[in-house]
Inverse folding.
């Protein structure tokens, strides 16, 4: 651990932020056992000392009195908020006893766990493996699944198979990737530097975000029609020979089929669909031709939006290919892992645990129509029917570990109805999330400032290892995740697979044979495995992971599973008369439904508003800041209107995550509207090819709220 030259009472720890999920490297300053300052880790040059508002609010979070302070066991009805305080032993014994009974009666497969994904969760999977359950899930069904599967169908690797070389790029194209607000600190800095250097930024969104404000071109697209725009760009690039023929020849299969397919999708046709003129589409096409291959076409991140999201992301991947951007300077470098740097990589902590032979309860990987989905995290929304029907087999217990599905998945009422069939719901959280409030047992995990996590791998041009280490002692009676799972495993007779007394035992097991000790990594918070970036020859052999080893424009993964590689475009449903399509997204100062009650962030942004197009607002007699009723599916919320020219007339927009109703969170209780509360009936409404829920297939009406000025 690096100690500052000052005094023992004052020290600096290099760690990883966890105020949102993007995991920026941080430096934590501690005085007399209290966190007094958090900033970016200056050893990471791209990051520097910068931090976002949420990261800075980590101190307010740490010392907040409105977060769970000890284990709690429910005494009243689910969700009624009646609890008794328990010791850790009591709470873990309680859970273990219930789990053991379930395992004895139904097998380990009756236990499901979902988490927030990421590189620190190897023990979550090891725990499930040890009890014989294949039912590991994460948040992806409402986040990146469409993009992930789209990338997989084209390259054989997932969404993170490539990175972004902003430093040398000439043109960045973002389809609703709101980089400036839905942010990672390092990435925003790189993008702003690129713009200062003269790079172009084309931003496509039905509303103007702060990224739009920074863009050289903002295209206000009709909601859910970006597939049409991408097809027209492909058509235009091919028709004019504006694509990288050498790259396409060397690396792809299925080009001729692509050429045939895009024939009808001209810029003129797309103009009708998208509301963006053919001239502007062509101008963009010409610019991309001039700037290629130093171009970044971002295929999206949060793409659980509409029924065309998968094919839109696939078309964006195809644009990446046509522009020859893979491994190009200023394009999309292949993400290299430790093996590419000649290092064996971190050891698998679950290697000695027998393989689970059971099939997944969500059908992923084996059920007709679900074989092509990535089995890793499955699809959580497909667990609900299994809980409900007991098919393909009964699910009796669910552990939500750093996951808040009652806000992250649509239709809270329907979720609660189904979850109520379970014998046990456990929430491991650091907040009173809606899900924690509905659980049978709440286990407060030590916060990211109070715990150390497993060593993690960083992929990229400079692969490496990094660590989250403990900055301070737990402020309340909370425990680190590795300890919780180790203790639970022991109680279930699986202690032999978790022989860890301390996090240092875990680090040792992970690092054995890598040539590094934990101290090497803790000193700065990370190590690079190479001093110079690893570069491949983009026209030489590239390590595509498809069955053919090529970029598959006609995808074998899709063909084998009865899906089209090129799906004819279908126009999205227009909102009903007087209605709006409800869009959502992030703000720079909040994380999903997690930070609304944070003392600092609540003060900066205590509520959300509903964005309405100025012309539509005028028709409805709604003025700037008026209180309005937003209604859909029997749900109504009263919020203020943000009236603006900068949103498409078909759309309304609200920042996600507000409208929570957990009484223990007094600052955020009942403030603003919860987009997720309006998305009724959407729990089973998902793109069958990409797998993600189509969350924006939700229409609302808006009218002036009676009696409120
Ligand atoms: N309607 C609608 N739905 C959405 C979205 C949307 O915009 N609109 N966004 C979607 C997206 S992109 C995503 S990624 C998901 C996100 O949904 P989630 O993954 O549920 O959200 P997070 O904010 O990451 O936090 C999950 C839970 O982890 C808890 N937590 C935070 N830090 C820790 C920790 O250190 N330890 C433990 N044990 N718990 C912790 C938080 O308090 C929270 O309850 O939601 C998706 N769902
Ligand atoms: N501050 C902050 N940053 C975060 C997070 C956070 O919670 N807070 N969460 C992280 C996570 S988990 C994720 S997944 C990413 C998400 O990163 P993004 O996907 O970039 O973020 P969003 O804010 O969900 O959506 C961006 C925009 O998509 C637009 N949009 C809606 N429908 C369409 C459409 O059909 N086409 C197009 N082109 N645009 C559309 C919305 O108007 C919105 O402005 O952010 C990450 N960064
Ligand atoms: S974006 Fe902000 S909150 Fe998220 S990890 Fe980075 S510093 Fe923390
Ligand atoms: Mo996400």
């Amino acid at each position: 651990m690096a100690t500052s030259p000052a005094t023992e009472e004052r020290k600096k720890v290099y760690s990883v932020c966890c105020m949102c999920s993007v995991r920026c490297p941080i430096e934590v300053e501690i005085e007399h056992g209290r966190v007094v300052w958090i900033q970016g880790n200056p050893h990471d040059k791209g990051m520097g000392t910068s931090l976002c508002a949420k990261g800075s609010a980590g101190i307010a979070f740490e010392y907040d009195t409105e977060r769970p302070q000890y284990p709690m066991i429910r005494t009243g009805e689910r969700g009624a908020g009646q609890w008794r305080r328990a010791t850790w032993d009591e709470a873990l014994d309680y859970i273990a006893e219930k789990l053991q009974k379930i395992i004895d009666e139904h097998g380990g497969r009756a236990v499901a766990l979902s988490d927030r994904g990421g590189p620190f969760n190897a023990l979550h999977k090891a725990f499930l493996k040890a009890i014989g359950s294949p039912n590991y899930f994460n948040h992806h069904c409402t986040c990146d699944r469409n993009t992930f599967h789209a990338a997989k169908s084209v390259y054989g690797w997932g969404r993170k198979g490539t990175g972004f070389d902003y430093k040398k790029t000439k043109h960045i194209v973002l389809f609703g990737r709101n980089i400036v607000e839905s942010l990672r600190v390092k990435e925003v800095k790189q993008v702003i530097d690129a713009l200062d250097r003269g790079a172009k930024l084309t931003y496509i969104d039905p509303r103007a975000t702060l990224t739009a404000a920074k863009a050289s071109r903002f295209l206000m697209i009709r909601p859910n029609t970006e597939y049409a725009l991408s097809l027209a760009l492909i058509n235009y690039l091919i028709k004019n020979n504006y694509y990288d023929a050498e790259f396409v020849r060397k690396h792809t299969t299925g080009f001729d089929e692509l050429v045939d397919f895009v024939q009808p999708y001209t810029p003129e046709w797309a103009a009708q669909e998208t509301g963006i003129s053919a001239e502007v589409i062509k101008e963009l096409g010409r610019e991309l031709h001039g700037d290629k291959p130093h171009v970044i076409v971002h295929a999206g991140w949060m793409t659980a939006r509409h029924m065309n999201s998968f094919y839109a992301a696939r078309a964006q991947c195809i644009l990446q290919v046509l522009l020859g951007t893979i491994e190009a300077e200023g394009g999309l470098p292949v993400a290299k892992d430790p093996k590419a740097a000649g290092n064996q990589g971190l050891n698998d902590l679950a290697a000695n645990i027998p393989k689970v032979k059971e099939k997944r309860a969500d059908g992923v990987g084996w059920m007709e129509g679900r074989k092509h989905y990535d089995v890793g995290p499955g699809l959580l929304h497909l667990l609900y029917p299994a809980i409900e029907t007991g098919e393909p087999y009964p699910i009796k217990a669910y552990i939500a570990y750093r996951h808040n599905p009652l806000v992250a998945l649509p239709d809270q009422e329907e979720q609660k109805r189904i979850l109520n069939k379970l014998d046990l719901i456990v929430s491991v959280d650091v907040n009173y999330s809606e899900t924690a409030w509905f659980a049978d047992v709440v286990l407060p995990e030590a916060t990211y400032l109070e715990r150390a996590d497993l060593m993690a791998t960083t992929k990229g041009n400079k692969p490496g290892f990094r660590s989250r280490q403990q900055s301070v002692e737990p402020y309340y009676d909370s425990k680190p995740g590795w300890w919780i799972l180790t203790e639970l495993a022991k109680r279930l007779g699986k202690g032999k697979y978790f022989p860890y007394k301390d996090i240092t035992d875990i680090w040792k097991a992970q690092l054995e044979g890598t040539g590094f000790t934990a101290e090497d990594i803790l000193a700065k918070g990370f190590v690079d495995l190479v001093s110079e970036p690893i570069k491949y020859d983009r026209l030489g052999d590239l390590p595509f992971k498809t069955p053919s080893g090529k970029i598959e424009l006609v995808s074998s993964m899709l063909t084998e599973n009865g899906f089209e590689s090129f799906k004819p475009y279908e126009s999205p449903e227009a909102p009903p008369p007087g209605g709006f399509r409800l869009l959502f997204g992030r703000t720079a100062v909040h994380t999903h439904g997690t930070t609304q009650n944070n003392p600092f962030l609540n003060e900066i942004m205590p509520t959300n508003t509903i964005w309405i197009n100025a012309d539509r607002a005028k028709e409805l007699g709604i003025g700037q800041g008026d209180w309005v009723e937003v209604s859909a599916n029997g749900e109504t919320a009263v919020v203020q209107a943000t009236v603006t020219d900068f949103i498409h007339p078909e759309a309304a927009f609200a920042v996600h995550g507000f409208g929570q109703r957990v009484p223990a969170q007094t600052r955020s209780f009942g403030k603003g509207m919860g987009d997720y509360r309006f998305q009724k009936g959407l729990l089973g409404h998902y793109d069958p090819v990409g797998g993600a829920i189509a969350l924006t297939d939700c229409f609302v009406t808006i009218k002036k709220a009676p009696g409120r000025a």
User: Anything to note?
Assistant: Residues 1-6 have pLDDT under 50 and may be disordered. The CA atoms of residues 585 and 655 lie 5 Å apart. The first helix runs from residue 53 to 56. The longest strand covers residues 635-644.
